[in-house]
Amino acid sequence: MPDDFDSAVADRFKLLDHVRVPDTWSRVELKVLDNRPASDTWSPGQFTGEVVTMIDVKTTDAAEPRQKRPMRVVVAGILAAAAAVVAVAFVVIRDADDVTPADEPSSTATVPPTTAPRALPNATGKGTSLVPGTYFVDSVNGTKTPRIFVTLGTGWTDISNAEGDIWQDRIGYLWFSRIGKVFSDACHPSDGYYPGPVATVDGVVAALREQQGGWADVTAPADISIDGYAGKAFQRTAPADMSACSTRFGRTRTSTGPVTFPDFRSWPQPDGFEARPGGSLPYEPGQIETLWVLDLDGTIIVISTELWPGPSAVAHADFAAAELDSIRIERR
Amino acid sequence: MGDVSDQNRVETVYRAVHPRLWRSLLSYTGDVELASDAEAEAFAQVLRRGDAVDDVAAWVWRSAFQIASGLLAARSRSSDVRPADGSTPPTDSVAEFLGLLAELSPQQRACVALRYVGEYTSPEIGELLGTSAGTVRVQLHRAHATLRHTIKEDEHA
Hints:
The structure holds 2 protein chains of 2 kinds.
Chain A: H1 5-13, H2 25-34, H3 78-83, E1 118-119, E2 133-140, E3 143-152, E4 157-158, E5 166-169, E6 172-177, H4 201-209, E7 217-218, E8 222-226, E9 229-237, E10 247-250, E11 259-262, E12 288-296, E13 299-307, H5 313-324, E14 328-329
Parallel strand pairs in A: 1-2
Antiparallel strand pairs in A: 2-3, 3-14, 4-5, 5-6, 6-13, 7-9, 8-9, 9-12, 10-11, 12-13
Chain B: H1 2-29, H2 32-48, H3 56-77, H4 92-101, H5 106-117, H6 122-129, H7 133-156
Helix pairs in contact in B: 1-2, 1-3, 1-5, 2-3, 5-7, 6-7
């Protein structure tokens, strides 16, 4: 039996009960989306020879019979589906005059909403394809907001976290967030935070536009109004070369195993955790983001579309247009 | 449809074990990012194996610790890496405690993580780590000896 010291140690471990546990299921899904054959995966068996005795679990796991059939990724075909979206101009910003009334489908939406808007996270389960139609979120990083609607065509996957504020396909993703602090230097996020206030639209815009780190391009902010909610919109392009940035170790969206990669990040949310879900989606060189900073009855939110480098410009345009041109916000 | 049921089965296990498993891995690795990645990799691998894995929870616990061990080894070989913000525990007291655990050997750390966070018994830990219950008890005893020393130092600091 454990000695008397056991309870003292157990008490110390209770500290961990207060550590917020991130929902890592979206990271699981990202790994599965890679859909690599098991023999090519970065498997436990790969480390067998390096693991100390106690951890050197028998290789029965690695040698376990190959799955009877590989898990079929539910969201297969995303790229093809995304390419099928009606091509429209890339929408960087939009003002009130361009906003379609909430009860009318967007002209750029491939499928008009024929059923009632559905909440995210998607009831059918994360990691699954979203049925074309209109969806909404009504909280952002734990804070209630007016309902934010977006109408999606085909090719979208729900990878919502607990707050239901993100989903993506293979060319980028849409993300609703709030800003707790802004790193003063995105290329070296450990160096500290932007010193000014970030509790207003102007404060957030200033912090993000003045952020160091070698952003390749930052456009001038434009006034926008979405269903009466005022804000600013602008675009940033991550540097093509991040070789001078701090690094971190782990998996990236595209890596097949843990690697050292540039630690280029922009902001943590108010809960203090990684700006990206599970911390698994750092900026990639050349990534383009369109930011809408909006004041929703005193709650400052950021709606961002993040476009990964790689896919064709047409796919990018489709992606952004399908998202941004359909967003509407409930009036309260 | 079997694929969907497999996914549901695995996600059900994930929801049930996630907090304990993740915190156990945090205790073991001392690193939020590595804990998250080891856990996610274990679940991704079990998903790829479909219904070939009967006891998903046991498979994931075992694999996650082995993956975490490999990650720690890989990181130790990567000399140009420094912990990023995302790898920093949320509070100073937790960081301090994880620092104490870092004084333990990896074997001892795995045992205490599974014992105090995973809430497993020595025989169960032995089963998960592929060793005997007696060996686990020895490792726990040694861990206590080390922690007794470091915790006293910590309290007098």
